[in-house]
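Pair request: fold both.
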Amino acid sequence: MAELTERERAVVLAAANGSSYRDLAQQWGIEEITVRGYGHRAIRKLGARSIAHAVLLACQAGILDGRRRRHGDHAGYEAHRKRGEDPTLCEPCRDGERAHRQAMKKRTRT
């Protein structure tokens, strides 16, 4: 699965929240066809059949779940574990998890 750009992810997230391409176009001040392009690229990258299917696949991959999105668009440490993969083999996950644990330690000390 290819990584989504910030705009592609925003379109999928907006669709998950019930917004239309037209709503986003008005909000962002761009043409609706441009927003549709972002949506279609996200659909293709996720291997989905529709924007609704893209929302489902993005949720399953942890892309739209704020708790798992510690490492940008990357699904993250916990998503690897749930798929039965070794997250320590993924450098962004390993680095992100290390930074997260250090931040959590600092919070508990103060």
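--- second member of the pair ---
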Amino acid sequence: MSSETAVGASRVVMSAADIDRALTRIAHEILEANKGSRDLILLGIPRRGFPLAQRLALKLGAADPDLDAAAIVGQLDVTMFRDDLARQPTRAPERTKLPASGIDNKVVVLVDDVLYSGRTIRAALDALVDLGRPRVVRLAVLADRGHRELPIRADHVGKNLPTASAEKVRVRLCETDGAGPGWTADEVVIEANA
């Protein structure tokens, strides 16, 4: 059961417990789709996709004790592959870190927080081409808010969030956002755009 509460001009649509349950479900879906953990690689897209990938790896490791969770996680920076750099605020690229086993002939699961237009994932696919040749690429997102501009869909979704174009979906994670005014844990919030 999801906890949806309103706070001012925003509403919390996923609490820390909701996020944890969604990640547990996604981890089991990944194992089922892959028929186990063989050849799995999780690549988180900075900023919030990377800690989500780390959490997913721990859940995969809990479900499959033979899996070394730390060995399958990496980070894929897509900044220089984006097609909207001129419209976005300046952002320093993060470091791309691949697992020691690489991505060639692996099942790569891209992990991100929110799927919106699809442009970040398109950039991630372009970045992957420069790094190797995975056998399969899948996508896992915590929230899918719709409004796609490109024909991209997630294979694993924590929660579908019907939103208006004017609204913003904010994912707050302890690893990237610490604690803030009015919140102390992980949450997903929909904010009305003023």
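Observation on the second member. The domain at 20-83+91-161 is CATH 3.40.50.2020 (Rossmann fold).
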